[in-house]
Amino acid sequence: MGNSYAGQLRTTRFEEVLHNSIEASLRSNTIVPRPVFSQLYLETEQSLAPDGRTENDDEDDEDGSESNSPPIPYQMKPPPEGCCTTDGFCQAGKDLRLSSLASDPLDVPTGFMLVGIKSPSIPDNLLVCAVDRRFLPDERGRNALLGFLGNCMGCGEKGFRYFTEFSNHINLKLSTQPKKQKHLKYHLYRNNQGILVKGAPICWRGNDFRLRQMRSSLVEGHPTSDEQPPNLPLTHPPHAPGSHTGSHAEPRVVDVARTLINGNHAVPSTAHPPLQQSGSGRPSVTGPNANAGPPKKRHKGWSPDSSSNSLPESTVKSPPSSLALSTLSVSSVITNGARSETVTLQSSSQRSSTPLSPPELSVIVPDQLLHTCKLQPVIFKGHGPLPQLTGNVSEVLVSSLLQSCYLSSQTLPRVYQHYGPSPIQPLSTEMQILLTVYYLVQLGPEQVPLIEDLEQILMRSWRESHLSEIRQFQQAQTPGTQGRHFGRETPSALPALPGLPQHLSLPPQSQQPLTPSQLPWLAQLAASSCGEGVVVLGEEVRSLAQGLQKTFCRLMEGLLENTNYVVIIVVSPGQETQSCVVVTGKHQCRALAESMFSPTEGLKEISHQLSTGVAQELIHYLGQDGDMDSLLDSSSVDRNEASPLSSTQDLAEEKSLKNTQSPKNSQSPKDSSTQCAKEALSPKEAASSPKDSCSEYCVEWREVRPIQLAVARKLLSHVCAIADSSTQNLDLGSFDRISFLILVPPSEVAFQQTVLHLWSSGVLRELGSVEQECVSQREAERYVVKMDQRAQARIDSLIQEAHSNSYTLYILVHDHAHWDISNSSCSSSDSGLGLVDQLLNSRQLKDATNILILHVTSFPFALQTQCTRISPYNEIHWPSAFSNDVDLYHEKTRYFGVSELLESTRSGSSLPLMRYDSSFESMASTLEERFPKLHSAVIRTIVLIQHYCVALMTASGRISSSHNLHKHTSVETMEIVQSLLTAAHQCPAHHGHMVLLRIPSLALAVWAHRRLSRVRKQLGLEESFEIILGNPSQALIIGRIFTDQIKTWLKIQDPDWVPHTYLELEALPCILILSGAEPLGESLPRSLKYCDLRVISCSYLHRTTLEQELGLAAYLVKAESRPPHNPGPGSDLIESDAEKLSSTDNEEEEGQDNGDSPPPCSQPVPSCPDSGAVDPPPTQSTTSPNIQKGTSDTIQSPSKSQTQPQPQPSSESFSYPRIAPLHRNQPQLQSYPQAQSTSQLQSHPQNQIQSFSQANSQTYTQTLTQQQPLSQMQIPSKSTSSDSSSPRASSPHLSCSWARGVSRPPSVLLPRALNDIITASDSSGLPRFSSFLPHMSVAWASSFRPLLSKMMTCTEQSLYYRQWTVPRSYHMDSSNRTEGRSDNFHPRRLLLSGPPQVGKTGAYLHFLGILSRMLIRLMEVDIYDEEDINCSAQAEEVQFHPPNAPWPNTEVMKAIPFDYTIHDAKYDDISTVYCPGFKPSADGNPVRQEDVYLRRRTSRIKLTKYAAYNTYHHCEQCHQYLGFNPRYQIYESTLHAFTFTHLLLGEDIQLYFIIPKSKEHYFSFSQPGGQLESMRLPLTSEWSPDCIKSPIFTPTTGRHEHGLFNLYHAMDGASHLHILVVKEYEMAVYKKYWPNHIMLVLPTIFNGAGIGAAHFLIKELSYHNLELERSRRLEGGGPVGDVWPFIILADDSCVMWNAVDLDGRSGPVEHAVSLKQVLQHMEACPDLAHYGLCGIRKWSSRGFTVNKQWEPFSRGHLHDFLLLNVDRSQNVQYDQNRFTCHDIDFTLRLHSAGLLVCRFNSFSVMKKQIAIGGYRTFIIKTKMTDVPTSVGPSQYICAPDSKHLFLATPAQLLLEKYLQHTSQKLFPLSTKNYTHPVLSVDCYLNLGPEVTVCFVSSRPHSFNISTTGLLFSGLLLCFADAFVTSGFLKKFTFLKGATLCVISADRSSLRQTVGRLELEEEWRFRLSDEFQTANAKEDRPLFFLTGKHI
After folding, report:
1. Lesser CB count within 10 Å: N end or C end of the chain?
2. What is the rounded radius of gyration, in angstroms, for the C-alpha atoms of the chain?
3. How far apart are CA 1744 and CA 1741, in angstroms?
4. How far apart are CA 982 and CA 977, in angstroms?
């Protein structure tokens, strides 16, 4: 292969990949992005062409073997003169042969691999070279870079960049063009002796890749269709990974023939995604097919994006039937497959040296096979093609699951190729076959093989055979890759084989590989240990066809009667080993055959058998022994009553249900057992006696529990996390309300149950959807929808509503989310599946930014795959109620779920709550053998209903005891029926309990309901208990008498009320027959006592399926009945690991189970204390199967072996403590006495006489002779108390059976097969079924996955499934794949998972409520709501303006006296300004602390649509305003300097403007992009309805996030100029948060300045800009004085504005208006130019003024929001040094200058409380440290030239603070002396609230108050200028002893002021009265002098 084009890339492609790589690296946290050049060169996915080749294959790929044309002659360059040309040597003369270099130490550079090169001139040897691994393919033939880089290992020459050049150097002497694919043949590695040997072949495209493609192309077909037509010969590559023998002939290319199977082309299935390399993350390639090599030169259009997904996976409607489709989809059970399937597999082995022979002759299936053998054999394909089956093929099943398991276990993960040349090989074919034999041998006679077990055996064998290599690989990993992830398993902690006994040890690692010749006799040796159970046909057969024919013959001859499995092994010299397994065990064949149905097909088959009458034969058979109908007729209450059965099937069954002898003797109580049934009151009788009531009955399921509140808050926090993330996928701030829709499965009961929860939760009232108390649930039904065809319209309307209501957040709750995960494209319309995918995964729903989807499920596994749509960060797991045995939530109830059920099976001293019925199982097993054509569900259901009918007849007492009916039922069934009939008799209100009978088939459930109802009627028990048919598609139907009883209990008055949910059947004695393929989320009442699952299917062994059925028994028991803990590690994985918290939830609660501490009771206890041992077979086996009917006169307990005959003390059992002495007979959970032997039973007769009224016992005794009378029969109760047999305990009315029942969970009866699987655990204590495939719609990504760990948290389980499972083609997430991304998560999708029946519905309903409250809270802000202060009641009530005057009149305003008094409540801690007419209150204003403004009075006010917002608000309308403009890049702004001169500062001021590109039109420049000249101002005459003329300046500091700078909504979209005035050091952060705002940056010297400096610069800059604009207009020829002179000074906390409506009937009313309306109204004032300053009121909820008259305008102090005339106020400046009260000082000086000040009282501003930042937050700290210290006000000053602690605080601030806090000492005569104020000349300074200040101006012609006759208590001169003279001061009179305070900038000016003003004439000074602020000299302290008036 030449390299002339290597690295030549199209520029656009390179830039695109480079950009994607950079973006991925920026976004990624854990996953290392792929390198740029790897993306450019690595292989893409390709599909197979119709001829089976990849589309980019070259015809001349492998030595021209695909072409008949002669090879193109190739002339190599002549070698240089003098060089070596010997074969096997390089041109430098150095030996390159492997035989020569095998022992030599070779220097292999990092990143290079040793490779063996095949030379045509020396075929028996290899040449050694080193090649850069990047140019070699991985084990899949992918990911090889174009080109070559190699080193010569002979002479050491390095850097050969072209293989042509390298081939010349090593003297290959080729006749064709050199290509690395042809000649780089093998990896080389050193063995244990350090010798360099040949390793695995290099997997080039034409070699192993096509083989793997054919392996994956498994297609279903008919058993009769051949694997391949005989006329198509099959060739096979000899050198594939794993080859141990064989010659080195040139490989031949394998084509996938275009075989047509049943009319379908062979379709490849999903290829293996590569496994995790290091760390966490997903595999990067998940496509169906994958490229095998680099592109050829002629494929110019190739790009990594051109993957061919056009050839989809084979889509199969029935889920299990596709289990054979994929090499990576190994099913949970070997039984899960298609009903009839074949596989087009050309090759199944990786080892061959010669081509395979053509397919053999067909095998004839004999006729009458099923009839003769009573079984339908199942053939498992193994290795090699299966011969064609002909003849009676319908009676043989073929499965490819075993073959899939083999192939998956031979596909080595790429991770082991990363460390050096990999010597790790997959298991050989021979080892796989031998391990399979080992596994089959150890299976019990009734066990069905599980594929998980075999797969783990194969994996463990592989790991143990490569321990050293795997350790070497792991040690080479970097430390960062170690840790807690699932990419590897530590070999030292390998689990024990789940199915392999220890005595069948694996072949030692050190032995030589197993040879084909050894295989047959080793397999036969292994099979010999089990007798005839497993037969191996090996040496005697020469082909699979011969072996199959011999097997069929033996079957027909009856020679395989005791054989369960026949293993056929074909070993032929020169051919690869072939194998298959024929299942011949009757039980195994039945289980496998039924598992090949999909669940839907299985139910259809059952319905078909019922409808066609096939089941009648069984019914007739059961009726042979006695006439049960005649017995029923004789006991019928009303013999003339017509039979309710109408169909012919019912009539036949009515006459045929008769007694039959049970296979095992099952004793049952007789005569006296019926007494309590006769005595029981019917509900009708109970209703007639209303005085009988039960004090213990209460319904609590409506309450919200603390743990539900915690989960709701956790949901809320996740939603807030989405909103707070930088992705902006959810803007909570833009929503003002929520709406929701709850989607439930199509179950009427589940629908009504959700409606009931919603209606009673109060959420609807909280959301405002229902105005008043609901009288019915109809209002709630609008918010719940069943996922049927009618749901389409509901969701469509929700999407449309969401589009039109962008301010509403819609929550779509998908409850029971694991129910329908089918792909809509793969589901038929009539099936009802695929609807969730069609609706919830639609583009409209995904793109709607105001729709949030919440999936809720108990079994999230199917939603956690490699293609999931839910981010792992958006998963919420149900927390544990206990941590280290501490109750975290203090609940009244304790959850009892699957883990606790399993625990009850492991506490060896008590009867487990979960068990199986041996009598029932034996009868069903016998009938299954007799009726092989009947589905086992039909047989088991008919038998079970017979047991119930017989038990009812026996317990009713209406049948004579001479009929021995107890023989025809089981002890378990008898106990259930007895308990059901007698429970109501023990309660005065006749409360009972529920028996759940789970029958998945609706047809069987209907039959069972009719049969039981008929028997109940004929026995006269219609009023004793109800029989309910739970049909998901129908509403609940309850008899009227029982409905009335429930209404009495629940105190319901509505005459039309009927129960709609199972929850409302609380305490009703009933049998609920629950049908449906799977439960659909229906909750069961706490009166559930028995959960009868004896007829559920054992075929579909997936984790979800099993946990779903067991979840029906999940229960909330009373918390006080918590049992003591058994020590030992728990089984934490069951129930989706509900016991442990997610690692992302509550971290402190994670490590609760570390093995040495006892787990909480909600956590299971291990099944076996020794975690390293392999579990023995279950010991819960019943009577030995060898004991035939009648050979034993004892009955063994259904769930106990005879290995523990001695009773255990109750203290050692897993028991509940007694609740109270009053209820001593109350059964206690799981504390049953051990079964006693007969001798023990007879030795204590007085303790064992119990009546059948105590029918709450869990089981009968084990030992009971048939002759023993009833009075001597022991029926122990659940209690371990010795009082259980006392007379008091036997009293039937002592307590309510319902009340006793809520303290214990229900008992569960399982099929034996399921019980054995569920109760088994692996060596680590983990339940065995937890490692099953999680769901039938997903597949394992690889067999090389680690096992689930017992210590995994919920989050770690989720990550495990996300890495190791892939969705099948019919899974809805299979389409969720995006090129170039490792995830494709929906940003607004959450997953709530929790165990079944735990209360998830209540949790998410409460979440909806608190989310609604939070949104309301987000739409509310804390507004300062304070009354005006200093209001004088004696003020004159004069009306100056009409109340409705729109604008002020200038002349009238001049007549209004100026109000010097300060009324703003934020200034209630400052000095009052003296006003002649004001009378202060006696108590004055209170003194407050510095931080008191944080605690000022506020009110919660909802934001209006005209509010101003901070940076957290970003709705769609604001995007362009905030800078998201497509015309401009974000952050695109320029910095402009602006300089002007000001006399006060004495130097030029340089300011900086940051102007975004989108705002440049507001400014004028010398040229485009040139020098900034001025800010454009409009003319006074201009007016626009959508424009504000005044520029808005907002000084701000420390509030870049919280400042209210978003005025878009406040301005109602009007155009306006808004400028943020920021300090230089905050420029960058403000620019980051507000990229589209203009910013004015203050000079550096103002970094420490206060608000006065900001306002000073704004005002002076504005006046300077006004003059510039006038000059610009003048140059343009316009009028000079017509430029708009006003600016707005706005605080950064102004949030909303209001206007007063005077038309209200109850006086003036305020309503919200936009800032635009306020400003336009003020700017439209006719005489506005005459005013110097205008403002508006501050809002208060307490009204407008204390005066009765409404004055629309007033003169006084203005704050926070000012309209300033910079032209008229030119000569009045803000004091740039001020930090506090600068606005009061400015207003006083402005008024004294004669300028009009006007407040528009018709408008008010609301100020938001912002506790962060602002100009008031100055920290006073010392210069010694930056840490704030507590410095008192007395330390703010010091004597000049003294040693004092200097402060790092501006001098002006220290002075202001000192005067504020210590003025009562400085001006002692002024304290609380309003009539003698302190005279302050030309400035206002705050002297504290106890001192009054009288302001006067020294300016000529100024307006001052009259001071005639006023005696001042002090004089304050601050920076007195030339206008202050001694003559001016002599106008004022002072009290004797009044205080003088003179303040100057330095000591010199201080003395000058004293001298110039002749102060020493009237004031006495002392040397000690001179002070300075506590500043260092370089900080320029201020100085002041005090004195006393003489």
Report:
1. C
2. 46
3. 8
4. 9
How is the chain split among helix, strand and coil, in percent rounded to 5? 30, 15, 55
CA angle 1620, 1621, 1622 (to 5 degrees): 110
Under 8 Å between Cβ of 722 and 1388: yes
From first CA to last CA, the distance across the chain in angstroms is: 112
pLDDT at position 1433 is 54
Burial of 776 (0-12, 13-18, 19+ CB in 10 A): exposed
**Mean pLDDT, rounded, for 495-501:** 43
Instruction: Say what angle helices 936-956 and 1002-1018 make with each other, to 10 degrees.
Output: 20
Q: What is the DSSP secondary structure assignment for residue 206, as one 8-state letter?
A: I
> Is the Cβ–Cβ distance between 949 and 1015 less than 8 Å?
yes
Farthest CA pair distance, the chain: 143
Q: Give the contacts of 383 (CB within 8 A, at least 6 positions apart).
A: 348, 349, 403, 406, 429, 432, 433, 576, 577, 578, 579
618: CB partners within 8 A, 6+ apart: 927, 931, 934, 938, 939, 942
Q: Tens digits of per-residue pLDDT, 516-557?
A: 888 998 999 999 988 899 999 988 898 999 999 999 999 999
CA distance 491 to 474: 10
The answer to whether 1668 and 1676 are in contact (CB under 8 A) is no
List the structure tokens of 1127: 């020590």
Distance CA 14, CA 644 (A): 80
Helices (H), 1327-1426: 1354-1364, 1400-1418
68 contacts 329 by C-beta, under 8 angstroms: no
pTM for this predicted structure: 0.66
Look up tokens 């040693």; give the residue.
1843
Closest alpha carbon to 1175 in 1220, 1131, 1109: 1131
The phi, psi pair for 653, rounded to 5°, reads -70, -30
Strand 994-998 with 1088-1092, pairing = parallel
Beta strand ranges found along 1493-1582 (DSSP E): 1498-1502, 1533-1542, 1547-1556, 1563-1565, 1572-1575
Indicate the residue type of 1636. Answer: N
Mean pLDDT of the chain: 76
1092 phi and psi, to 5 degrees?
A: -90, 100
What digits encode the pLDDT tens for the residues 1087-1133? 999 999 999 998 888 999 999 999 999 988 887 644 434 333 333 33
pLDDT band at 616 (very low <50, low <70, confident <90, very high): confident
Among residues 898, 924, 911, the alpha carbon closest in space to that of 1311 is found at: 924
1587 forms beta bridges with: 1615
The 10 Å Cβ neighbour count of residue 1049 is 20
Q: Where would I find the beta strands (DSSP E) of 601-750?
A: 737-744
With residue 1944 as reference, give the H or E element that holds it: strand 1933-1944
- Establish how many alpha carbons lie within 13 A of residue 1731's alpha carbon, considering only the half-sphere containing its beta carbon: 31
Residue 1125 region, left (φ>0) first, then alpha (ψ -120 to 50), else beta? beta
pLDDT at residue number 78: 77
Nearest to 865 by CA among 400, 444, 1273, 1339: 1339
Out of 181-195, 1017-1031, 1260-1274, 1412-1426, least confident range: 1260-1274
What letter represents residue 548's amino acid? Answer: L
Beta strand 994-998 pairing with 1070-1074: parallel
Structure confidence by residue, pLDDT tens digits, 475-490: 655 444 333 444 444 3
**Residues near 1388 by beta carbon (within 8 Å), at least 6 away in sequence:** 722, 729, 730, 849, 851, 852, 853
756-763, Cβ contacts within 8 angstroms, sequence gap of 24 or more = 756/780, 756/1060, 756/1061, 756/1063, 756/1064, 757/1401, 757/1402, 757/1405, 758/783, 758/784, 758/1405, 760/702, 761/704, 761/1402, 761/1405, 761/1406, 761/1409, 762/1409, 763/1405, 763/1406, 763/1408, 763/1409, 763/1412
Backbone φ and ψ for 718, nearest 5 degrees, come out as: -70, -40
Rounded to the nearest angstrom, the gap between the alpha carbon of residue 1488 and the centroid of all alpha carbons in its chain is 50
